[in-house]
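[audit] Reproducing an earlier prediction to check determinism. Same input, same settings, fresh worker. If the tokens differ from the archived copy the diff job will pick it up downstream; this log only records the rerun itself.
[audit] input (247 residues):
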Amino acid sequence: MGKNTMMKRSIRVHAEKTGNGAFLNLIPLLVGNVGLIFTKGDLKEISEEVSKYKVGAPARAGLIAAVDVVVPPGNTGPDPSQTSFFQVLNIPTNINKGTVEIITAVELIKNGDKDGSSESALLSKLGIRPFSYGLIVPSVFDNGSVFSPDVLNLTEDDVVEKFSLGLSMATSLALGISYPSLSAAPHILINGYKNALVIAVETEYSFSQADKVNEYLKDPSEFAVVTSAVACHSSCCCQGREERRTC
């Protein structure tokens, strides 16, 4: 932590001495009240550890509330002469054992609303510090790359899903422009086989992979038998699934 000007100078001097210009990517991030944490540990664990530490802060008139502020029911401590203070804020109270008691929980300030002087004074009187301050991680730097800390929350399943989506798009592009990429190769081979099969059927030219199809075309009754067997198998499977759903 320090003056941004000094931190920027330190980074430039370090980059010049080591020849590692990757650290210069940190300079645009040094804006406002920021600091740097250097670690050789797991970045996600460091981020979680930093977010644990927060300190309570009182409500102040004119500030925008970051959370809903609810005053809980119960004994407040002030004497009955201060009942009017609660009435101004529409807080239901009664007198119990010589002190003011709040009957039900009251939402005093809503998230996004501006704190009023009366609300701030009441919270201060009750000793309630509804807000908190702490460090947040706005950016992560690793091996010269700067990225959002949201990346640290990605799981292996998220990575696999994004990779699969990218692979699917790359395969579609390769097929669209007839580029023989590794992911498109199986589709290109299958499409080529289909085209060769069509030619074999039309010209009666035969090769080993087309022989079975030609046999079906010469004897449609055998093809009907196979189709019937597949249909029966599908029917049984559907019936089995239906029975499982019923159970």
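[audit] rerun output stored. Observation attached for the diff report: The chain has eight helices and nine strands.
[audit] end
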